[in-house]
Each structure stands twice: as structure tokens, then as C-alpha cells.
Design brief:
Helices cover 52% and strands 10% of the residues. It is mainly alpha-helical. The strands form two sheets. It has a three-stranded antiparallel β-sheet with strand order 1-3-4, with helices on one face. The chain has a two-stranded antiparallel ribbon with strand order 2-5. A hairpin with a 5-residue loop joins strand 3 and strand 4. Helix 3 packs antiparallel against helix 4 and helix 4 crosses helix 5. The chain is flat and about 50 Å long. Belongs to the protein kinase superfamily. ADCK protein kinase family.
């Protein structure tokens, strides 16, 4: 079924209609996360010709010829990864950050990205650094070193 819409990349049209670009970005990110984390079934080809917006600001997907489904372990692992990364906000304590870094590594391992038997302590240390950097960036701070 064809739904009248236009490309998300047509910023002139988005602004002409008074659509909120931030809200469109959030809807797009939420749609992808919902596909991956909640359903595990996702659109594999979301280029501007296949992912559009209508005049009300609703996302419109086209061309469902390239769809795929995540294996349960990948979906569950990615869910853990996302939960660990975004939990507790930017003001997270070092103790909670360490706990979340462990959860993130558990998720990566469960998804099959990290080989079983890999040096988890080193990976958790790296995860803590990148997670702290991500959260510090939200606060406008610089991260200096790995602890």
C-alpha cells in the first residue's frame, strides 16, 4: 500500500510543514530500537527512499523486501547492552558504572560478539571508560583516563 509521504532528508519540506526535527529523530531512533529490542524483526534497508514521513510527522516505511529477524540471544544481548549503556543517566556513580559495564559485557558476550573466554576484565575496563566518556559528554565534561 502506498502512503503519501516524503523523504526524511527533505529538511525544507519538514520545516515548511512545521514538523519538529528533534521529534522526528527521536521517532526514528525509537522505531529502530523497538524493532531490534522488542520484536527482533527489523527493516534492513532504511535509506531515505524507504523511510519517509507524512505531513503529520508519522514515519512511513516502504519496501519490505529486506527484513530480518534477530536470534533470541542476539536480541537479549543487545537489550542488556542498551540497558547498561543508558541506565542511571549521566550522573552515575563509579560503583553503578562498574555494575553496568559488567552488564554491557554480559550482553555483548550473550549476543555472540565477544568470544567466551575472552579477557572480561580488560573488556569491562574498556567498557567503563567508554561509558564514562559517553555520560561525561552528556554533561559537557572531558574524560581523561581509564580507571
Amino acid at each position: 500500500e502506498f502512503l503519501k509521504s516524503f523523504k526524511l532528508t527533505n529538511i525544507e519540506r519538514v520545516e515548511e510543514l512545521g514538523l519538529d526535527r528533534g521529534l522526528l529523530a527521536k521517532r526514528t531512533a525509537d522505531a529502530f530500537l523497538r524493532q531490534i529490542v522488542e520484536t527482533g524483526y527489523f527493516h534492513c534497508d532504511p535509506h531515505p527512499g524507504n523511510l519517509c514521513v507524512d505531513t503529520e510527522g508519522n514515519l512511513v516505511y516502504y519496501d519490505f523486501g529486506m527484513m530480518d529477524e534477530l536470534k533470541p540471544n542476539v536480541r537479549s544481548g543487545f537489550r542488556k547492552f542498551c540497558t547498561a549503556l543508558f541506565a542511571d543517566g549521566p550522573m552515575i556513580s563509579d560503583t553503578d558504572l562498574a555494575k553496568n559495564a559488567k552488564m554491557l559485557v554480559d550482553g555483548v558476550e550473550e549476543a555472540g560478539v565477544l568470544a567466551r573466554g575472552a579477557d572480561r576484565l580488560a573488556v569491562e575496563k574498556l567498557a567503563r571508560y567508554f561509558m564514562r566518556s559517553f555520560k561525561d559528554k552528556q554533561l559537557g565534561k572531558q574524560t581523561s583516563n581509564i580507571k
